[in-house]
Amino acid sequence: MEENSQGDEANNPRETFAIKDSALIAIATGRRAHDLREFRDHLFAVEPDSIYYHFWGHLLRPNFESPDFNNDFAVWAKHALHDLTLAERLGVLDPTDFENLDALRAAVIDIVEERIDECENLPYARRGDSFHFIRGQLVIFDTLSRAECPEDLVDLVPRLSLGSVFYHIIEARYRKPRRLNDFAVWIRDRGERYEALEKELEGIDPYFISLQSLRTRVADTLRKHLGEGGAK
Amino acid sequence: MNVQLDDYRDIVGIEALDHLRQLSRHLEGLRVVHVNSTRAGGGVAEILHRLIPLKQQLGIDASWEIVTGEADFYQCTKGFHNALQGYQISLAENLLGAYEQANARSAEALRDKLADADVVFIHDPQPAPLLGHFAERKGKWIWRCHIDVSHPYRPVWQYLRNHVAPYDASIFSLAAFAQTLPHNQYLISPSIDPLTEKNMDLDETEIAGTCRELGIDPERPIMLQVSRYDRFKDPLGVLEAYRLVKPFSPELQLVLAGGGADDDPEGAAVYDEVQRAAGDHPDIHLLLLPSDAHRKINALQRASTILLQKSIREGFGLTVTEGLWKGKAVIGGDTGGIRSQIVNYHTGFLVSTPEGAAMRTRYLLNHPERRKEMGQTGHEFVREQFLVIRHLREYLTLMLAVVRGEEGRIELD
Q1: What is the mean pLDDT of chain B?
Q2: CA of A191 vs chain B CAs: smallest distance (Å)
């Protein structure tokens, strides 16, 4: 995904909130790694879209892997390389801690290189368990649904598609200053009475929960501050 | 069956359908043509039978055409199928000639439909050379590969690659199948349709009745593999696994159920081999079913205690998806697309040998609660990941991406 890209003019604080939706499609990069050195080399060269996909793409697909490892790199380290140390170091990385995808990439490379230095014999994946670098292409479209005021969101948010949740909360973090979500940004500057709501929306951590849970958490937060009926 | 998009509402939810409608607003009126080599038999034809009408309901002008040829055309394309999945088979010049001539004839027959289409999907190797006959084409052409090409026999892939490389994009079921090609290789899994006769709910009376009609005792445990008679599906391995389990479960019956596809000339020979290996064992049932016996297959899958798909190569394995959807734990070969559906210990077991299949079968026969639990997990997994609605959404997304010709993030008006 392009970092800090434009295109969210509809969510200007003084305008209505335009509910958008997104669909992510995966593209093979053709890059595959069998061991840590190959993995490191591809990490240097792969497109930022691929780093994004491997940290966030799991939210858009069901996952039976260990829930403590929320990125594809850590899951591969555990299940293909059987290197739990590396898996834990990669698994603890939270992409929301980094200013941009290149900073996140650098952190991953640093961990991998540290592990290469530590290992006398590098673990390698068996045939069929190579790591395949994938990148995502995101298509964003307007649903034509609008919120005129924060209270309207009370009804709208529980009915959002998962693509909308992804766009307004995950994808927003790469468009907004301070890695905020669209709801928090829109509600900001709409008066003192929304200040507590804005702070709570800002504090929602999207990394360790599913998109369904994320939708529920935002909806619960809105209901708590604005009441059941919203605008009504 | 005239299924409407809204009929999926209770299965996937209203949000998923709204999402499709919003996405397709940007594709209304687009002329889209799918081309393959058979309307009956095999997963590709089944998928197209449903995807085309659903695209039409979303306002897309979608249609489906086929390429045909003589016996040597099918012999050649079966050779492709085998070689691309790893067998070292060289294709004689006369067969390749027949392949190219059949495509040249089909190109002329389809010229009006394909030249002006906005998007053309060419499925599998059979119609791949068509593109070369449309130098003045208007739209985007996409090659959709449904088979496991992770380790192809290189000379045959090099030949096919020359036909495929000029496409605007290609689609593979898994990242492991992607090749070195000068265009975007999209990753889209196939899907099943929960509303077709193959997958719809059936009542117990019909299930038992179908078994009896086919000479199978519905009261005794059944071990089933549904697939074409194809060496890659390893029917002989399934027979061996059954023989290893039988002493421990004397009541167990084995059913191999399959038919032929119009474009598969090897099925009869493989069936004969399996029949010889099975002998006249009263509990081994080899069924040759017509390609439209969807309801019978459905009943057999629902009646079965153990479902197998012990392939040694597999593009995806829709029979695995069907089994999981019916709440069954599935034992599958550790290969290709089966690995993306069977999550070991969660939705079934992956195995590499007949011995492994026998061991897991014995385990599941002895743990009915575990079987049920895995089956429920598998059912939900398919609901989220492998139903036709997700498949359609990804096709729409891909079409938007290729028609717009942009990379990365695409924002529509």
Answers
A1: 93
A2: 30
CB contact under 8 Å between B19 and A27, yes or no, is no
Average pLDDT over chain A reads 87
CA distance A27 to chain B (A): 4
Which chain B positions have a beta carbon within 8 Å of A138's beta carbon? 408-410
Please compute the mean of the pLDDT values over residues B315-337 and round it to a whole number: 94
CA distance A104 to A19: 29
Cβ contact, residue pair A142, B412, below 8 Å: yes
The percentage of residues in chain A with a pLDDT greater than 90, rounded to a whole number, is: 63
Contacts of A137 in chain B (CB under 8 A): 397, 401, 407-410
Task: Tell whether B8 is within 8 A of chain A (Cβ).
Answer: no
Report pLDDT digits (tens) over B117-155: 999 999 999 999 999 999 989 999 999 999 888 889 999
Instruction: Tell me which residue in B19, B176, B188 faces A163 most closely, judged by beta carbons.
Output: B19
Q: Which one of A6, A65, A137 makes the best mutation probe of the B interface by having the most chain B beta carbons within 10 Å? A: A137
Answer whether B90 touches A (CB < 8 Å).
no
Cα distance between residue B170 and residue B402, in whole Å: 11
Write the pLDDT tens digit of every residue in B47-86: 899 899 999 999 999 999 999 999 999 999 999 999 998 8
Question: What would the pLDDT profile of A38-77 be if each residue is shown by its tens digit?
Answer: 999 999 999 999 999 999 988 877 666 546 688 999 999 9
Q: Rounded distance, CA A52 to CA A134, Å?
A: 10
CB atoms within 10 A of CB A34: 17
Structure tokens at A4: 């800090």
Mutate to test the interface with A, among B18, B19, B349 (most CBs of A within 10 A): B19
B367 and A CB contact within 8 Å: no
- Could you report the per-residue pLDDT of A115-155, keeping only the tens digit for each? 999 988 888 998 889 999 999 999 999 998 999 999 999 99
Q: Which of B184, B380, B412 sits opposite A139 (nearest CB)?
A: B412
- Whether B184 has its CB under 8 Å from any CB of chain A: the answer is yes
